[in-house]
Amino acid sequence: MDDDPRELREADWPDDGDGSDGRSPAWERRARVMRIISIVALLSLVVPGALATWALAQSTAARACRLAVDAQADARTPTRVAFELGSLETAGWNCYALAPTGEVRVAVLGVIPGAPDLRPRSGA
What we know:
Number of helices: 2
Shape: rod-shaped
Distance between the termini: 88 Å
Structural class: alpha+beta
Largest sheet: 3 strands, antiparallel
Strand content: 15-25%
Helix content: 40-55%
């Protein structure tokens, strides 16, 4: 004896195994358009914020680098900042003083740049 009512046994249910969910082509097209619009809207919100954050971090790193070079060298010494992921000790923004013999790393400003650490280091 079957526990299901006759209406449920005789109903024409879509088959779940073949991947067809019974939607019309117009509905599929509408769903695809809405998916594309949603992705474009999400990117239009995220990308400007990411670019503004990068620009702010770069300008903060440049100012902090200028402070570090001014404290340790001549004020006319040119500087350069770079975001590097080479090693764990120097990951993030790095400050370089440009000398005639090459670049000299002056400070590691970190992933989120801030005021440079200008305290003298001990040799021990």
